[in-house]
Amino acid sequence: MLRVSACLVAIGLVAAPALAGVEVTLVGGYRTGDASFLVAADSPGVFCFAFPCFVEPATAEDAESYGLVVDVPVAERLMFELLVNRQDSELKLPQGRGFPLFFAGHGPAVDLEVSTAQIGLRRDWLRSTRVPFAAFGVGATRLETVALPFEILPPPQTLSPVDEEALSASLAGGVRLAADQRVGARVEARAYWTDLPALLGGSTWQVELSTGLALGW
Fold this sequence. Notes:
The protein is mostly beta strands and 217 residues long. 8% of the residues lie in helices and 59% in strands. The chain contains 1 helix and 14 strands; from the N terminus they run H-E-E-E-E-E-E-E-E-E-E-E-E-E-E. The strands form 3 sheets. The protein has an 8-stranded antiparallel β-barrel with strand order 1-5-6-8-9-12-13-14. Strand 8 (109-124) and strand 9 form a beta hairpin. The chain starts with a helix and ends with a strand. 28% of the residues are buried.
């Protein structure tokens, strides 16, 4: 037991300098939907109540988001930043024009998962308990729905879901509270840009407001 404890202490002493200044933040917030997908009425997974139907954009709904941000110092007031988060939204088909559209077995909406992973930099200003900052990141965003069983027209089959990965970037600004302590808070606004293919409606923007619990070493 003493040997194990001694090994753990030694590992901690070696790792401590490497972890000095590292900050991990658990974040939660609310993000606009805005992402839109061009969906033809005869697309797999979409049922048209009456023909002919028009081509209409399906839109992602506003929803909560949550994730993790890790900041590692690379210079004075400059941090390397890793961001991963997820938004659990809904993809909703438009209604009207006398031709309502439905996801087979799900009605006009289906669950949509928006997952983002990015790397970038964060720049801090001032040195106090309230530190304003700006950050940007570049990475990838994945938009995915569940597989939709076709339950209305025979024969039964599994239809292609939305499953798209695209280049994404983000720009953020905010403030860190109690930034000179081991435990603090982070409040920010972040704009996300996703380079969706033209087939899905082209590039789109989302805006997120979030707050988080920051733990420093």
